[in-house]
Design brief:
Length: about 240
Amino acid sequence: MTTVERTVAEEAPTLAPEEVAAWAERLEGAAVEDVLAWAVARFHPHLALACSFGAEDMVLVDALARVRPGARVFYLDTGLFFPETYAARDRLAARYPVTLIRVSPELSLAEQETRHGAELWRRDPDLCCRLRKVDPLRQALTGLGLRAWITGIRRQQAPSRAGARVVEWDDRFGLVKFNPLAGWTWEQVWDYIRARGVPYNELHDRGYPSIGCAPCTRPVRPGEDARAGRWAGFAKTECGLHG
């Protein structure tokens, strides 16, 4: 870390654990715009939204662009997105006044194949997720000088996310994490999208409530939870970004 980077890190705002808990209680049930406004007031410019171009993240971009035009929004481009996901990205970029930042893995897909073999995601999805998502995220959070990040996590998405708070301390990455939609239902997400005409990934209309990399995502069957289409055939429900 350079002297300048160290000075910025030391001066960047943060929250003590007791403050995180207090704000989690205070902001529970607050409007998404109010949560984002507080996050921006407390942490800007050391704050960014992580976007996967799913329905929840498109809602957050729409709200954040109104709260803080020019706010930073970053995405982890694994190189394995569906074409529809890239199309959603392009519609987002054309519509909203945000600073969209592409984060890439250290290894290209060709380099990963040379080092780890073809279609790593079929043999070791945990390693593939680490190389293409978790490690790039860790580098992005540091490289962007963040003290807080915003995600589209909802408690209803899966049992592994049932305990999510609107504000929490992220032990994995060592910074504050905002989940403004934690208490929202899937119906509330779509009510917002329809009411504001928010662009969204067309795969949602084809049975994909949760959208990840193309090789590891399938449509969800009736009665399955929203993330059942991710890593089908593996005892895996998270890529490692949130647990």
